[in-house]
Amino acid sequence: MTLTTRFAPSPTGYLHVGGARTALYSWLYAKKNGGDFILRIEDTDLERSTQESVDAIMDGMNWLKLDWTHGPYFQTQRFGRYKEVIAQLIESGNAYRCYCTPEEVEAMREEAKAKGEIEKYNGMWRDRTDYPKDKPYVIRFKNPLEGDVVINDIVKGDITISNSQLDDLIIARSDGSPTYNLTVVVDDWDMKVSHVVRGDDHISNTPKQINILKALGATVPQYAHIPMILGDDGKRLSKRHGAVSVMQYRDEGYLPEALLNYLVRLGWSHGDQEIFSVDEMIELFDLTGCNRAPSAFNTDKLIWVNQHYMKTLEPSYVAEHLAWHMADQGINTDNGPALEEIVKVQADRVKTLKEMAAISAYFYQDFTEFDATALKKHLRPVAAEPLTVVKEKLAALENWVAADIHAAINATAEELELGMGKVGMPLRVAATGAGNSPSLDVTLELLPKEKVLARIDMALAAIAERVANS
Ligand code: GLU
């Protein structure tokens, strides 16, 4: 039998990092075992499900390159099948009509609460057949009254729940629509899911689902409930903690490889190894290595992982992602150095691709002003002479290459008996508009010579203006 896992998001929002990690673990487990990975959209909540959210989930999955073998299946397209199974459960005596009004159910709860008992439906219609005519009813599952349900959870270990704690849950509402626990059971059964990997917020549903599966004579899958992700304040990760949507991490300049690597380690470990390529993750990942306790999201660590990948992945590949950020920031890169050259010189200078794009604009765009601090500090009257001399030397270069540019800067410093910085800093501000850049000779080489010379003129004009105004 093929090992089969699934990711079953409800399309009521974007793909958040918790969902992405669940998807990743399911995907890895299937890949590792040569199994299948199913994408199933649980869109039965018609009021809260949106197409926009389905698209957002797909975008997130695609961006992370988590591909699926089957699907996407949509639960709303399977209502016929759910009806069939509900009928089957009624037929076999495992489900029944309940004519209680919501008020009656509420009263049962209140009564149980007053007695200090578990608040649950009391089974009032469980064995009745005196059905009233033309009254609305729901369908309830006949949960076993005795015995225990044991979840052999791969992550959490064995969890035993007494059936006396469970009530006869509603599997079809009064309009006939199936409820969450029923649809999940039918799908996991029909789709031959062998391993259910999901957040431990679902753990209370698991015994109910196991009971229904057993009533249907279905094989009960193995379960792996993954602990929650917490924010740095120890509370469940939410929007309050900043970015939680996968695509927001893209927008903020993280590489998908970095987010995947960060997420795989958030709740799973393999010795003290931190960096895992996707192939390594597939090879080494195991559900048994997952933590039982929740993990806290740590943005600094994500940044560290992102820096690692910006520096070590193929520059041409990182450049594809940088291109997105350049476009996002309205920087036209048609004319100027190849983006992979930018990656090579900037990767170890930034935390994110968004930052890389922002600080690389001067390679593609002219600026009209110099950074105020850099101007004040480096474009002072004393800088006019070194700039003039270095401009002449640069203008005379036959080959616009870093080594010759370097030599021209050196020669200027020697000739004027100045330290390198007294030439280099004004030149850097002139060429880039600001006081920070990769090594100056390399930076200049990436810019067209004419552009550098024109920018030196602009700097000289700024100095002259400063002198005139003083
Ligand atoms: N649709 C559920 C959710 O998004 C997941 C159900 C499951 O994994 O069994 O929380």
**Which structural class best describes the helix and strand composition?**
mainly alpha
Instruction: Round the mean pLDDT to the nearest integer and report it.
Output: 96
Instruction: Report low-confidence residues grouped into runs of 5 or more.
Output: none
What's the number of extended β-strand segments? Answer: 12
Q: Main traits of this protein?
A:
470 residues, mainly alpha, Rossmann fold, Helicase, Ruva Protein, domain 3, Arc Repressor Mutant, subunit A, three-stranded parallel β-sheet, three-stranded antiparallel β-sheet, 11% strand, binds glutamic acid
Structure description:
This protein has helices spanning about 15-30, 50-65, 80-90, 100-115, 180-190, 205-215, 245-250, 255-265, 280-285, 300-310, 315-330, 340-345, 355-360, 370-380, 385-395, 400-415, 420-430, 440-445, 450-470, and strands at about 5, 35-40, 70-75, 95-100, 140, 150-155, 155-160, 170, 195-200, 220-225, 230, 295. About 35% of the residues are buried. Strand 6 (about 150-155) and strand 7 (about 155-160) form a beta hairpin. It has a 3-stranded parallel β-sheet with strand order 1-2-3, covered by helices on one side. The chain has a 3-stranded antiparallel β-sheet with strand order 4-5-8. A two-stranded antiparallel ribbon has the order 6-7. Helix 8 (about 255-265) packs across helix 10 (about 300-310), helix 15 packs across helix 16 and helix 16 packs across helix 17 (about 420-430). The longest helix is centred in the last third of the chain and has 21 residues, at about 450-470. The chain is built from 19 helices and 12 strands. It starts with a strand and ends with a helix. The protein is mainly α and about 475 residues long. It is elongated, with a radius of gyration of 32 Å. Among the domains are: about 5-70 and about 230-300, HUPs (Rossmann fold, 3-Layer(aba) Sandwich); about 315-365, Helicase, Ruva Protein, domain 3 (Orthogonal Bundle), CATH 1.10.8; about 365-470, Arc Repressor Mutant, subunit A, CATH 1.10.10. Glutamic acid binds near residues 8 and 9.
